[in-house]
Design goal:
It contains 4 helices and 4 strands, in the order H-H-E-E-E-H-H-E. The strands form 2 sheets. It has a two-stranded antiparallel sheet. It has a two-stranded antiparallel sheet with strand order 2-3. The protein is of the alpha+beta class. Bound molecules: iron/sulfur cluster. The site of iron/sulfur cluster has 12 residues, from loops. Iron/sulfur cluster binds next to loops.
Length: about 100
């Protein structure tokens, strides 16, 4: 029972980055961003798999609500800090980040 309570509390903390992305999604995308989306779908799993994320048998990802997706999805990754959790797979990078290709 205590484990369930702790898991529930920690689960809410995992939502903080997503809440922050949502609240700041009206802000502009960092101008140093380069690259493009390779449709890996990893940002659609932060922190839990989005119910609109569809994964085909060949492993490719797509959004079943693409035309209606919210700003935080449209602009991801808006900043370097948003990129960090998916930096190894995302097709975007930021020019002023360490190791960025210029
Ligand atoms: S993590 Fe990056 S490359 Fe992958 S789906 Fe999201 S924006 Fe596209």
């Amino acid at each position: 029972m205590v484990d369930n309570y702790i898991y529930e509390v920690l689960g809410k903390f995992e939502m903080i980055p997503k809440l922050a992305r949502t609240l700041t999604s009206v802000l502009p995308v960092d101008k140093s961003r380069t690259g493009s989306c390779n449709q890996c779908g990893e940002c659609c799993k932060l922190p839990f798999k989005c119910s609109f994320l569809k994964i085909a048998e060949d492993g490719s990802s797509s959004c079943s609500a693409y035309n209606f997706r919210p700003l935080n999805c449209r602009k991801f990754p808006r900043t370097q800090s948003q990129l960090e959790p998916v930096i190894d797979v995302c097709g975007f990078s930021f020019n002023d980040s360490p190791g960025a290709v210029k």
